[in-house]
What does this fold into?
Amino acid sequence: MNIWELIIQQPVINILIVMSHYLADNFGLAIIALTVIVNLILLPLTMSQIRSSKKMQDLQPRLVDLQKKYAKDKQKLAQEQMKLYKESGVRPAGCALTMIIQMPVWIALYQAIMLALAVAPEGLLNLSKYLYPWQVVYSVLPLNPDFLVMNLAQPNLILALLVGVTMWLQQKMSMTTQTDPKQAQQANMMLWMMPILFAYMALNFTSGLSLYWVTSSVFRIILQYRVTGWGGLRRQAPTPASDSDKKYLKFQAAQEKKSKEDTGTDIVITDNDSSKKGTRIIKTDKYKFQPDKDRERHRKK
Amino acid sequence: MENTVNLKNKTRVGLLVLLVIAILAIGLVGSGCVRGLAPIGWSGGTVSSGTLYVGSNEGRLVAINLADESRQWAETLKAVTQSGLFGCAPTGGGGCGAGTQRVAIYGTPVVAGDLVYIAGYNGKIYAYNISNLAMRWAYPREGNLQPFVSGLVEAGGKLFIGCSDGMVYALDSTTGDKLWEFKTDEKIWGTPAIDGDTIYIGSFDKKLYALNVADGKKKWEFVTEGAIISTPLVYNGTIYIGSFDRNLYAVNAIDGKLKWKFMGGNWFWAEPAVFNDIIYAGSLDGSVYVLKSDSGEKIKSFDLKSAVSSQPVIVDSSVIFANRKGVIYSIATGSQDIKQIADLKTDVDGPLTVYEGIVYIHTQQLELQRINAASGTLYSPVSLKG
It folds into this structure.
């Protein structure tokens, strides 16, 4: 037995088998219980990552400031951003790190599920070498693969879809608003790519593994909700205008005076508080920026 | 500066793509790291009139003339087409997503009269003409049952087999018509044994059953503490059978009462061998236990350094064992000494076959290895590739 089998695979297999025995010989319940335990063990890491995402969200106005300030010096901008992240205790790579740490658990669980369910006779034969010398382990095998109306040893379309949906929900909730369009594009790509990829994998692997993924995602959705609420799922609440936002509005107005060719261009103003300060909100779908007409209307006033 | 920014963006996208590919790759490699996720098969061989019949890992019956090594192949077994929107039916080969449609064959072929029989993991039993390996009949004629891991046995014009659906089937060996069936509570993977008018078979439901050959009526059942997958050995009115509770049981063939049991370090997967009232039982703990057949008293044990899952054979006065790593041992029944006679350096799971002093071993490499049991000489293997 190699190190991987000794440290990861063997314990996971035996724990699953024993849990299955004590959960009314229900392997599905054993998978769910083990998932919750694994996620509880990884809880500090997960919470740190969720909080980090929330801090990242809170930092957005300051990041915008930095982008304006160092618009012409990208290197300096990157340095200042990293400095800001460091000062605020934000780890941009936290999500990937959590995922990478969980990966061995997924693989071990997948292997454990496949072996414990005796999907193939060779699997059952190989399983024997992983068993601890506990009577309960020997007497309970091979495990019953039926869970609700599913066979956990076979792929299942509904569970595969659930994998995709719950993963999307969880990612969407944890998404931070990106000010950089390219980063926003990448985040959006990941938002869709990962759930699709995992749903595809779920369609090809045993549904026991899908059950692990779904439970894991639901667990993280609950955690995310407790820390950030619905997060990215809810429409972004407007934030009070910072000084930089005010400058931005002025900057747009200055442009208005100069340009005569921009007729028809949309003006987007998202600053709610501006109305309180006497600035009129222009709804984009109804109003078009027409420099000549607008200027004349202004003069009449 | 603009170039640097573009480069950074490209690097980020590249890293993202790499991450996704890494996840996919690890997932796939992870699945491949485990042996036994896809059914492959471990059919043993049967020799009849100088021809050895074996179910190859390509999913077809192969007939080898042992005199001139000429080979003949039957048609490849057809896998079950996957069905169902909300799940996949068990296939003959790799199952869903395994990417193969080979039908695994676990049971050793059986020859009776002018027919040779084989059961596939696709849930079908086939009868072929011995002369040309043309199919005579298949059971069931339409559709498929659950996978067959059990082997067939033939007696008095009847075929008997256990199925993964938990049933024991008795078929007419000439026509393939079902004569009777008997239901157990779990899968059956073990091959039955017949003695007189009784058929003995173990089930995953932890019971050993004794059934009437004529009509399938239960005579008695014996309950163990673990699932049963091994084939019963019938000797001198006693049934010897291993269970997943790590015990080897000796049960009275008449009434199903326990005579004795012996606990090993792991499962007794393969059928034991018996010679001169001594039981030789290989265990997945890597040992061969030598026990007195009447009392279960341990005489000796041998460490074969790897799990023993293959059914041994007796050649003259020696018992030949193979461990899963392909090392072949010979135990002298007189002196109870063991010696290594060959190392095939390949995995061996299936039962051994002996014919005229030569031990035939079907390996995972689509080959039939041949060893002279007396001298340990390793002859060139016979390819089973069609």
Observations:
- Chain A is about 70% helix and 0% strand.
